Amino acid sequence: MSYVVLIPLLPALAFAVMVVMSNRIRNSALWVSIGAMAGSLALSLYAFTRVWPGGEEPVWSSTFALADIGGKPLEIGMRLDGISAIMLLVVTIVGLCVQVYSLGYMHKDRRKGWYFAVLSLFSAAMLMLVLAGDFLLLYMSWEIMGLCSFLLIGFWHEQAGPRAAAIKAFLTTRVGDVGFAIGLAVMWATAHTFSIHEVSVFEWARYPAAALAVALLLFFGAMGKSAQVPLHVWLPDAMAGPTPASALIHAATMVAAGVYLVIRAMPIFEEASAAGLHTVMIIGVTTALVGGLLAVVQYDIKKILAYSTISQLGFMFVALGTGNTVAALFHLVTHAFFKSLLFLGAGVIIHATHTQDIREMGGLRKAMPWTTGVFTVGALALAGLPGLSGFFSKDEILVSILHVEGDLYSMGVRWLLIGLMLFAAGLTAFYMTRLWIRVFGDNACSLAHEGHLNMLVPMVVLASITVVIGWTQPVFMQFLGEHGAWPDPLMAGLSVAVFAVGVGGGYLIYGRQLLDRDKLRGRFYRLYGALKNGFYFDWTYNGFIVRPFFIVAEWLSTFDAQRIDGAVNGVASGWSRLSDTMWVGDVKIIDGAVNGLGRLVTRSGARMRKLQGGRVQSYQRLAYAGLIAILVVIALAAWLTNVVVPMLRGA
Amino acid sequence: MTVGPSAFMALAALLFCIGLFGALSKKSAVMVLMCLELMTNGVNLNLVAISRFVTPESLAGQFTAAFIMVVAAAEIGLGLALVLALYRRTRTIELDRLDELKG
Questions:
Q1: Please, what sign has the CA dihedral across residues A22, A28, A32, A33?
Q2: What is the pLDDT of residues A18-39, one digit of tens each?
Q3: Helix (H/G/I), strand (E/B), else coil: A64
Q4: Contact between A624 and B24 using a beta-carbon 8 Å cutoff
Q5: Residue B89 to residues A47, A326, B29, B85: CA-CA distances in angstroms?
Q6: How close does chain B come to A592, measured CA to CA in Å?
Q7: Rounded (10°) CA dihedral A337, A343, A348, A349
Q8: Minimum-distance CB partner of B24 among A611, A613, A620
Q9: DSSP secondary-structure letter at A195?
Q10: pTM for this structure?
Q11: Which three-class secondary structure state does DSSP give residue A3?
Q12: Taking CA atoms, what residue in A is nearest to B26?
């Protein structure tokens, strides 16, 4: 067994150990989970050094035959290559930071042991996902992550909000997962394999329809998991879960699994018709814009970050839409670090102020200098300040749009797309400025206090990575087998300009209060209403899916109660009545016959008994009566033969 | 007037019927035994009379009657012994009370 297997196995074992403990013991055994995570991190670092200096070929792979279907072996397997190694590091670093942070954040919760256990299971599934050598194992891990997401969103299931959010998230992602599952079926039917390697070398061009179907169905699964429009509605609600869990699952890792899936499935997209990648592109651009616009009007700090995550995931899918997996992965990595940092910062703020509404916050920079510092680093990285990681990865995406090839992409279309993405990037800078000013800037008095040390240290670690990682861009690209390059000067210039406009606009509106926001809201009340209602996605789903579902369900329930139950009860009562009738018949006829026979025998016996009087003279009397009877018969016979018959003959 | 065989046979039948009536109706076992003797004698009378009138040259009927008398004597001796034994056991010879074989 290779050490690679241990990477997902350690957290899985931690979960297995913790899940059998009693709640009380589990609450004091959090180090099991953290220890396993630290072990996975160490092994992931070792794995990274083994993969170094990178390349596309896997350095280790292993398969295990599950079954044999129609002569084709059904195998699951694991493989370690450059993409896996990078994802392993992201998952384990963010995972460990979140777990250490959770020690402080959750220390008063009476079910923190269970929380850590689920985090471990989640980490195991995510690590398994990035090590999966085939789409089947990937899908299994994918579903386990969905379960963990459900459990963690609904962690405070005593309250109605988290409960509903958990169900919503589970069902919405399930819609995508169905697409994924069907896609796998089509994949098997066409290529007879799930292996990532074999799928990548399969001649998909010979089956254009199947290739497009697989590509779009897998992408549909990715849309559910990665919260792409129109399946994004679950992610903002998912913020009902504990904040560190949101940081890990709903910002850094799980939601990026969709991006990872498309990266792995990219050979199919490339061989299929261009419609596949065009769909990815359109969905990505739409999501980036929708997420960015909706983030502007939110007041809940976590929802702002959630919509921001949706928007950034849209950026990654735009990169994938151009076929540039490296740019997507790079943005995934940088985003994972700075967004989890922002969520952890938001967690400290929520912990300190006991509210999530940014209107009730303010002036926190004096009370919480460390948090302010690291949060600012994260916010600037997200907004795209040159030198921080977000700037590099967004720039890479813009460059890949500029160089994208295809019939559809004329120069005008490319610049339209770049313009839209720059607008989305500007929105990012704008809403992060708004958030920062609301939370830290105003001079409102606050009694908030700085977070605990084990909450600050992970944030500082993540902030340091956020500062550094952007500069690794050329190395990163070489590691994945691409030509390393620094940002394109033209795009970098545009990015900086957009960043300046976004931050400046935010500062003027929210910091200097140059514009009367109420008047703005009044003038654009239609737009504002649409944004406030999240472009009516929830409203549409409720009206066209959820409510009809409930109506049908209610109708079916009534039908069930009245018709089905009625029929069943009717049959039962019919049987009961029939049985009553049969019972009467049984008693009267069958029993009557048996009893009657018995009684007849008893009575005749009683009569006959009197004959056996034991008196010798009565026997004698009978004997003589019998004798006389015999004599009479003989005499009669003699009379008949001798007298009557001759008389008749004679006559 | 000659006495014909029918007179003997009528007497024999009368004797038999008296004996039969007694055997069927008397309470005492001794009386029943006596009545049985009476019936036997009725039969004997028939035998002797029929033998005398039908086959006068043969004495078969008379001999048979003599045999029957001997057997009847032995029988009555045995019967009286039984009645005595019965009396010792049950202190009664009334046949109506001797119904231990009642079913």
A1: positive
A2: 999 888 888 888 999 999 999 9
A3: strand
A4: yes
A5: 120, 129, 14, 6
A6: 29
A7: 130
A8: A620
A9: B
A10: 0.75
A11: helix
A12: A617
Domain-located, residue B103: no
Q: What is the pLDDT of residue A565?
A: 87
- Are A13 and A33 within 8 A, CB to CB? no
Write down the pLDDT at residue B98. 82
If pLDDT is split at 50, 70 and 90, which confidence band does A651 have?
low
- Number of structural domains in chain B: 1
Confidence of residue B1 (pLDDT cuts 50, 70, 90): low
Chain A CB within 8 Å of residue B91 CB:
no
Residue B97 domain flag:
no
Nearest residue to A123 via CA among A141, A100, A150: A141
From the CA of B27, how many Å to the nearest CA of chain A? Answer: 9
Question: How far is A48 from A473, CA to CA, in rounded Å?
Answer: 17
Q: Is residue B75 part of a domain?
A: yes
> Considering only alpha carbons, which residue of chain B is nearest residue A606?
B103
Q: How far is A593 from chain B (nearest CA, A)?
A: 27
Domain that includes residue B86, residue range: 5-90
Q: What is the CATH number of the domain that holds B25?
A: 1.10.287.3510
C-alpha A142/C-alpha A255 separation (Å) is 10
**Which residue among A611, A613, A621 places its CB closest to the CB of B99?**
A613
On the 0-12 / 13-18 / 19+ scale of CB atoms within 10 A, A169 is buried
Q: Mean pLDDT over all residues of chain A?
A: 89
Nearest to A385 by CA among A329, A313, A311, A334: A334
Supply φ then ψ for residue A2, to 5 degrees: -80, 155
Helices (H), A449-546: 453-469, 473-479, 489-506, 517-523, 525-532, 537-541
Contact indicator for A86, A479 with CB cutoff of 8 Å: yes
On whether the CB atoms of residues A371 and A451 are closer than 8 A, the answer is yes
- Give chain B positions within 8 Å (CB) of A613: 99, 102-103
Pick from B25, B32, B101: CB nearest A614? B101
CB of B67 closer than 8 Å to CB of B78: no
Place of tokens 């999501």: A287
Other CB atoms within 10 A of residue A183 CB: 25
Instruction: Compute how many other C-beta atoms are within 10 angstroms of the C-beta atom of residue A526.
Output: 8
In angstroms, what CA-CA distances link B20 with A408, A629, B3, B16, B40?
A: 141, 17, 26, 6, 10
Selected residue with higher pLDDT from A56 and A225: A225
Instruction: Provide the token pair at A621.
Output: 């009397």
C-alpha distance from residue A618 to each of A404, A611, B75, B102 (Å)? 131, 8, 22, 11
Segment B15-68, tens digit of pLDDT: 999 999 999 888 898 999 999 999 999 999 999 999 988 888 888 889 999 999
Containing H/E element for A75? strand A72-80
Q: How far apart are CA B71 and CA A217, in angstroms?
A: 125
Give yes or no for residue A229 having a pLDDT over 90. no
Q: What percent of chain A has pLDDT over 90?
A: 53
pLDDT band at residue A67 using 50, 70 and 90 as cut-offs: confident
Give phi and psi for A273, each to the nearest 5: -65, 160
Report if residue B100 sits inside a domain: no
Cα–Cα nearest to A494, from A420, A560, A441: A420
Compare CB distances from B102 to A614, A621, A624 and report the shortest one's residue: A614
Q: What is the DSSP string of A10-22?
A: HHHHHHHHHHTS-
- Dist. CA A502–CA A509, nearest whole Å: 11
